[in-house]
Amino acid sequence: MKLKVISGICFLLFVLIVSCQSDESIEFKRYYSAGAIVYQGHCQNCHGTNGEGLSALIPPLTDTAYIKENLKSLACNIKYGLKGKINIAGKSFDDAMPAEADLTPIEIAQAITYITNSFGNKQGTVTVDQVNEDLIKCGN
Amino acid sequence: MRKLTGVIVLVLLFGACKTNTTKNTLPIYGQRTAVTKTVNGQQVTDTDYQTIPAFKFVNQYGDSTGSKDLEGKIYVADFFFTSCPSICPIMQRNMLNVYNEFKNTPDFKIISFTIDPKHDTVPVLKNYADKLGISGNSWWLMLGARDSVYNLAAKSYLVAVSEDSTVAGGYMHQGYFVLIDKQKRVRGSYDGTDMKQVNQLIDDIKTLQAEPAPTAQ
Q1: Domain residue limits, chain B
Q2: Distance of CA B168 to the CA centre of its chain
Q3: What is the assigned CATH class of domain B52-210?
Q4: Is there a contact between A56 and B133 if contact means CB atoms under 8 Å apart?
Q5: B132 and A57: CB-CB below 8 Å?
Q6: CA A128/CA A115 separation, integer angstroms
Q7: HSE value, Cβ hemisphere, 13 Å, CA-based, for B84
Q8: Does any CB of chain B come closer than 8 Å to the CB of residue A54?
Q9: What is the pLDDT of residues A10-62, one digit of tens each?
Q10: Nearest CA to CA, how far is B17 from chain A (Å)?
Q11: pLDDT digits (tens, 9 = 90+) for B148-182
């Protein structure tokens, strides 16, 4: 009897954990697959299908250390564009990135989730709440 | 019966030859006119094909360059501007493949005309070329008067370009790579944003290179 109860509780716990995980991974997959489409429409022409960039004109998105350090600035960079010199993958880039002012916070979150989990990056889900928080810093 | 087999074999052979030759010849685009000339006292009707007219612009090194430097050369032309946010980067990425394939070929060039002469001065073009990673004289970025460039695009290279304040970057243009042969005729037009078509362009350049020189008239 005792054994049955314990194994029953264990089973319930197991189900709970599994379902929690899959909730999270469903959220991630939603962001990621929607982000792939935002990326194709707004980023891919310049940054490339594989995030490879273009010579010394357009930086690649494959510098995992840069992506990790600047995770919180990405939303502002996308929404308002980026000017000035940056160092990525051992090269310096100083051409302006145009603003994608028309993108909504949810689209930006999807794009960031896609970028930061592709091309060798692995940063997990960046939610719309995080993006809204990040955008306050550069909001005019 | 044996005769019939022979005929069938002959027909098949002829058919095979024919498909081969059409596959290896590129079409000639543009308008053509029939001209009647008198050669050695005899009336001969010949075809005049549309050709790229003479032009003289400046390249990224500040050198005066133009159609004279392209005589007897196969080249690929396209239209771009350095601050272009839309299709240019993907075109340049694909054109770099063409450049890398043929940069050491003496009778080949790439000519990219800027459609934003106000912004794209010689130093801007040189800076862009350096950053793109191109050097030497196999890829020229050409700067010319706005109207001459737009005219060449529309009437000769058959590519639509225009100033348009409603599109990102301020200029509307098609992303075609136009293949020109040694006789200044348009032999192909490829979507520069489509890697498959650009690979076809690379193949077609090789076909053109293998084309026999025209006989002197």
Answers
A1: 52-210
A2: 26
A3: alpha beta
A4: yes
A5: yes
A6: 15
A7: 27
A8: yes
A9: 788 777 776 766 788 999 999 999 999 999 999 999 999 999 999 999 999 99
A10: 41
A11: 999 999 999 999 888 888 887 788 888 999 999 99
